[in-house]
Amino acid sequence: MFVYTKQYGLGAEEEDVFVRCVSILGNLADQLYYPCEHVAWAADAKILHVDSARWWTLSTSFWGLSLLLGVARSLWMVLKLRQRLRKPPEAFTSRLARGKRRTVETQICSEVLTLLSNLADLANAVHWLPPGVLWAGRSPQWLVGLLGTLSSLLSVYQAVQAGRQASATP
């Protein structure tokens, strides 16, 4: 994660300012999540003598924040890509333009899948927060498992699709 964040930097290659800001904040939340989770785990394993509950709450909060930012980014991207598709149909009549249209449609599909995955994970993140925060602790075990499985399957599907596209590109 650190390598990705370092490569992304301040998102200079990102054209959209909103996407850049949300991505940078998401990267920051991700970077803060990992050490908090490690401290919580170390406290549970009696390696560190601190209250693990606080660290679990903090790490889950960073996880939830990262997911919320991911949801906002995906929604924004879907809106922007749909705007691009609404351009006059003449813009997509040539063979090259139809290929660009298919590319935009594929990007929209990918963003929707990312959005669904993030929402499933966000529902689980809220479940693991302390009681009293939204629906924390109230989701039945089968729902927590279903949401986690759904998120994982969506991520695996996206990885397979990305691999297919990479191998199909000359």
Can you walk through the features of this model?
The protein has 170 residues and is mainly alpha-helical. It is 76% helix and 0% strand. The chain has five helices and no strands. The two termini are 29 Å apart.
Beta percentage is under 5%
Mean pLDDT: 90
Largest sheet: number of strands, sense, barrel closure:
none
**Regions with pLDDT < 50 over 5+ consecutive residues?**
none
* Backbone structural class: mainly alpha
Large-scale geometry: elongated
Order of helices and strands: HHHHH
Helix proportion range: over 70%
| Rg computed from alpha carbons, rounded to a whole number of angstroms | 19 Å
How far is it from the N-terminal to the C-terminal residue, by CA? 29 Å
Determine the number of helices (DSSP H or I, runs of at least 4 residues): 5
Number of E-type strands? 0
Protein name: Peroxisomal membrane protein 11C isoform X2
Pfam family, one: PEX11
Organism: Odocoileus virginianus
Main location: membrane
